[in-house]
Amino acid sequence: MSENVSKLKNIMKEISGYAMLMMGAVIAAFSIEEFLVPCTILDGGIVGISIMINNLSGIHLGILTLALNIPFLLVGMRKLGAKFIVKSAVAMVTFSSFLEIFAPIVDVTHEYLLAVCFGGVFLGVGVGFVIRAGGCLDGTETVAIFLNKKFNLPVGQTVLFINVVIYMVASFLFGFDRAMYSLLTYFITSKVIDFVETGVEQAKAAMIITDEGQMIADEIYKKMGRTVTILEGEGLISGKKVVLYCVLNRFEIYELKRLINEVDASAFITISDVSEIIGNHIKKKADVV
Prior knowledge:
single chain; alpha+beta; 4 strands; 11% strand; elongated
């Protein structure tokens, strides 16, 4: 019975993943067609190249993005794994299809600043959903991931380099103002993608150096529902110390500071961002007694 339940959960997880993937592709297509294209503002990568060709030739944007992405999918098929390629293919087909569906609809705005801000936000949300679901919308991302695996080149820097080249070409074709608007949109999109990937409750890591380690750890567990890793440390001057490591979200930082101050006002605390959490090591609030 438990095996069947587990299989059902896995199937539902896959279905919800593909639903998120397709929803993200639809949102991204809406952003491109209703905000960016009317103002000749470019996205990066294959979509940006497609927008340039579309403006110069009149070929449908949806057809261009799909046609230009196919070679990159074929190149990445053997190196990046079948699951990633299948999800990326689904996302790209959905994206290209909805570019064609949204094309005849009346544009949302022709104001450049509104197009940059709202277009960047919607595009970031859409691409963020696709990435969270395990796919990608742009062939240049598959190239960047491939180069990272083969030559250890940073994915983000590779994509940025490709996009800067595209924006330089766009500045000669459509003017420097369009290139600058496009670059601004790119930065907004990147920030929103990061936000969507990490979620509203972005994780933070707290490192606490104290003489009251066990007491603070017990209080954090009892009042905040968070487990704590207890390490042994030694200060150059202060001698033996207990070091606590705890992962929490941004909304819990104030409560953590207040709790520690009550137990050991002399404790030394550092707070840092956590880009990703793998594993289920955080106790749920529902388990708190």
